[in-house]
Amino acid sequence: MQIALNILSLTSFYMCFALGLALVFGVMRVINFAHGEFYMIGAYSAFLCVSLIGPTTGALPAYIVSFAAAAIVTGLLGVLLYLVVVRKLMDKPLTIFIATLALSYMLQVVVVELFGPVGRSLPSPIPGIVRIGDAILPWSRVFVIVAISTLSVGLWFLLMRSDVGRRVRAVAQNPTGAVLQGVSVTRVGMMTLVAGSMIAGVSGAIMAPIGGITPFMGAAALWKAFIIIIVGGIGSIWGAVAAAFLFGTIDTFMTVAGAGRYLALTNAVIMLGVLSVMPSGLFGEKE
Amino acid sequence: MQLFAKLDSPRTVVLDLVTVLVVIAGVSVLAAVGSSYLQGALVIFSINAILVISYRTITTMGGWSFAHVAIMGVGGYAVAVLSKPPMDIPVAVTFALGGLAAGLVSALLAYPVLRTRQYYFFLSTFAAGEALRQCFIQFRQLTGGTSGIAFIEYPAFVQTGDTLQFLALVLAVFFLLGLFYLMFDASETGMKIRAVGLDETLSQSLGMNPWRLRALSFVLGSVGAGVAGGLLVSYNGIVAPADFSPELMFKIVAACIVGGTRRLYGPILGLTFLTIVEEAFRGVPEYVPFVWGGLVLAATLYVPNGLEGLVDRLRTSLVRRRRHA
């Protein structure tokens, strides 16, 4: 039971990180290397928000408000990224990758200068633990699981059941066809990038009380997210969800077995193995 | 496969050769007149120069690897482990073995990684490189964990502590590898690799084997990285995972973006530029990534082919003006 809960908790953590990345890639064929920094900035926005309005409103309301703050800040960053970089370099995937890589270093330096290189911590607004059978789980982690699940289901409904979602999927499948049907590819592209950035920011805010906040938290988690979306198949959001669950399970079992130090190696070997057999990932579309 | 049979147009080969010689001459002159700090910086610059020219060889096949620095680390760790007891192999020999080890690891990586293109290629090499770096940290018995392995010596023929002699060694290696890479680039195989980089399907239908050509340039480029890693480790006297950081990888990629990769002088020009910037901000090292990032961003947005592109544009405008006159 404890193991199952840990798997759930780890999976939701991996998912929140990979989801926005997979969305942006799936629709725009753009890899945003600064995604990790958006996540980090989301966490810092939450931290700022809670420490500014927390004393007057109490920790929990401030924490809820901080989600909105994180979404607004990273959403604006997404708009900027689209207008300055992505729109101009649309047909050059490598160049966008490099440009966002450069941006991620710049954002790191900015945050280090503003907040210092030492990490901050955000005390959990929902203290205490919950017992399920003989397993224990802190309420803060339950909150993460619920929040991420809500986010994912919301995204699913938006994509599959709404008019906007239909347009987004049309662009992802065939940009030319979408244009012919009167869908503005540029508007959809911008929307997706902003949405992906906001997901990154909100995920950062959700994870902030658990993981601690440092200027390098995004970069540290990014390569894991890459492995997840590669194994899942970069075009596929549901592949990313499946791969997040796969690695959540594997990593939990390995940690329980006391082999935590071989995690990185195992993950990489799994990724290389999957690539050898299926170059476009488990659920990826053919190139 | 013919390696060095037929050469590219002699002019470009000469240009590349001149690039190599200018670097060696420039570094030597600066080292002769400079302070000991400058000499140390020049050693690092020359090692990085080996890295960028070996990296350029990989980029000619059309894929930008993000595992280059981690593979360099393989060479570095090979030198550290093999030159110390119980192995006690002479350091000079371990440089070659380090290059070999890097080539071997890259050959193992080549099969899965080279099946991917474009986005997948950056991501999978990035993840593979990061996993390699995690291995340096985690396999403590072999690599010494985060603190690494200390007391690695200079090769026997270089006097311990003599920076100038070590610099001469690095420049000699740079010369040999530079010569090798430019010959390779100008050879028929090199031309084929560039063809594959431009259009894989077309070159395949012309009877080339893209997979083999791409693997060859990936492995040959990695060998140079391994040798550079060995030199770095021997110069520092210590090897640690932090030496092979993503920041260094960014510097190499940035050098190629800012400089351009079509000829050998591009990455060298880019590296020189970035190194000068780095030294100018020596007092505030925390701003260096910001400035580099800004430069790269500006280069990607406004100078598509890097400094090389600027040079070309300048030349065409000069030619045009001469024609009008």
How are the elements arranged and paired?
The complex is a heterodimer of chains A (287) and B (325).
Chain A: H1 2-28, H2 35-57, H3 59-86, H4 93-115, E1 129-132, E2 135-138, H5 139-161, H6 163-173, H7 175-180, H8 185-211, H9 217-232, H10 237-256, H11 263-277
Antiparallel strand pairs in A: 1-2
Helix pairs in contact in A: 1-5, 1-8, 1-9, 1-10, 2-3, 2-4, 2-8, 2-9, 3-8, 5-6, 5-8, 6-8, 9-10, 9-11
Chain B: H1 10-33, H2 36-59, H3 68-83, H4 91-113, H5 118-138, H6 140-143, H7 163-186, H8 188-198, H9 200-205, H10 210-236, H11 246-259, H12 265-280, H13 288-302, H14 306-324
Helix pairs in contact in B: 1-2, 1-7, 2-7, 2-10, 2-11, 2-12, 3-4, 3-5, 3-10, 4-10, 7-8, 7-10, 8-10, 11-12, 11-13, 11-14
Give the CA-CA distance, first to last residue of chain A: 41 Å
**Arithmetic mean pLDDT of chain B:** 87
Anisotropy-based shape of chain B:
globular
Structural class of chain B: mainly alpha
- Oligomeric state of the chains? heterodimer
- Tally of separate helices of chain B: 14
Global Rg of chain B: 20 Å
Order of helices and strands of chain A: HHHHEEHHHHHHH
* Uncertain residue segments of chain A: none
Helical amount among residues of chain A, as a percent range? over 70%
Number of domains of chain B: 2
Query: DSSP strand (E) fraction of chain A?
Result: under 5%
Strand order of the largest sheet of chain A: 1-2
How many helical stretches of chain A?
A: 11
